[in-house]
Predict the structure.
Amino acid sequence: MAATQKKPTKWTPKDAAHLYGVDRWGAGYFAVDENGDIVISPSGKKEGPRVSLPKVVKGILDRGMDMPVLLRIENILGSQIKMLHATFAKAIKELNYNGSYKGVFPIKVNQQEQVVEAIAEFGSKFDHGLEAGSKPELIAAISILENRNACLICNGYKDEEFIDLGLYATKMGLQCFFVIETPGELDLILARAAIIGVRPKLGLRMKLTAKAEGKWSASGGDSSVFGLNMSQIIHIVDRLKKENKLDCLNLLHYHLGSQISNIRDIRAGVMEACRIYEELVKEGAAMGHLDLGGGLAVDYDGSRTNEPSSRNYSLDEYCFDIVETIATVLDKSKTPHPTIITESGRATVAYYSILLFNVLDVSSYIPHPIPKELPKTSNDLLENLLSTYKMVSPKHIQECYNDTLFYRDQARQLFKHGQISIRERAIAEDLFRHILLKISETAAKLKHVPREIQQINDALSDVYYGNFSVFQSLPDVWAINQLFPICPIHRLDEEPSRPAIIADITCDSDGKIDLFPNADKAKRTIKLHDLKENEEYYLGVFLVGAYQETLGDLHNLFGDTNVVSIHINDDGSYEFVRELEGDSVADILSYVEYDVKAIKQRIKRFAEDSIHKGFIKVKDRKTILRIFDEGLRGYSYFERE
Ligand SMILES: *Cc1c(COP(=O)(O)O)cnc(C)c1O
């Protein structure tokens, strides 16, 4: 069968947008422009201002900061908060809902001061509040949230100190809700409230029987470790009745888990919660607030499916389904509509951060050329490989593949038994790679590719070494195989040539990215461009604003990256609004309890000893101490001179 030759068409930036899926996951914030650069549109709309990402990178470098950098685009955060409120407002209006909507940001999703501050700032006109799950988070929240109309939701296990903090926040006029997670908390809250002299606002965290699919589903459902079962709820109600405090019970809360990709799970959760809500109202509790927790998912792969890295609904559907379900269930019992609260973390902050890094080196799969003359060996392994190479054709593709695997194994055996040398084995390896490349090229022209051969492309990939640490900056890639969209930020007008995986600079074999979002099934490799002499190649990992910063760790002692927040102005100019220098080597060593002064002392002593023993000259000592000093002050990542 003659393979039909496809007419070669010229590669355009549009092809790149499609290849990397920018138009699928970019949500209007990211696109590829006609020059082949990634551009940012902070309003998420075509008409608004836009900024070239490579130009922002140049601005960062010109200001003296090195890669890797975590870039935050503050207006995207603003747009996400605005959109959430606008969409709920639209649903409430169109469905004639009688309550209102209040959002809160769960601090655990990104606790960085700059992030929480920015949320309070952009959220203030929507009375967007905060959710805290621990004492440090609560103190941070109280110190940042000045808005007395916004909600401050206290989840998590609460000791006396936690409760006192919340009660004093209540005293100062903040809308602080204590969500009771375990039966024992109630007594302590009531006792402290009586002593401090405030009326606490109480909520109940319920266990749902509804359970969502996904990586994080364990936080919802019957088996969840969080929340109260029905019997515990009723005992709390009775206790409050007895104390004449049912007016303090103001909120019902649940959290199904994060990244709920199926809208049906969201709807099932709301329905179940509404039934309990109306029962609590019947019991005489004041209520007034229904808090649905987090779970609003991010479409990381742009597939719009109920895959774990996606969601099968739009924000419109999410808001309309929630509002409609609550109204439908509660109207049957004529229960007044509550204020709806959601605790969207991931969806609020994911879009606004991008991890940027340069590529340091490439380990290519492309083998060395086949020598003109093969060395004489005692067996015909190399000749056999060479004739297999020559035989590769559409007709013999599977046969050649089988043979080449056989010869590769034979080469390993012969080497093990001392029958071929390391040089001969090296040539065998090169021949093997040439054959696989030729098989792959041949397969590309076929209509029907045998199953085994469809998979070989993944094995032919290059390794691109990126200047970053997966463990520090993308912990979920390592821990739970999370997919993040990745894309070169420039050169998108050139066709990328090589399939690749990305390795970081930790020397851990898990420090790699080898799963990439795709329109249907995730891919093992990503197509990347050849490196050019004297020109940096930059990649961006997008949608990394949620959960990655604090979960990251110091594996191999790579520290926090530099962080830059920009604000894009209406005229398309931009400015640096917040900056945070990444950890220096000295910072990191002190995190693991080294005393940096003592390190310097020891190096001085060792240098002195080296003079004494004749290893170095006196004047070498000065150079050595200077180099160590600079090393301690430097960035933990790879620095170009
Ligand atoms: C983690 C968490 C959230 C955030 O969930 P997202 O899916 O990120 O929106 C909200 N509420 C509670 C109680 C949580 O534990």
Notes: The first helix runs from residue 13 to 20. The first strand starts at residue 30 and ends at 32.
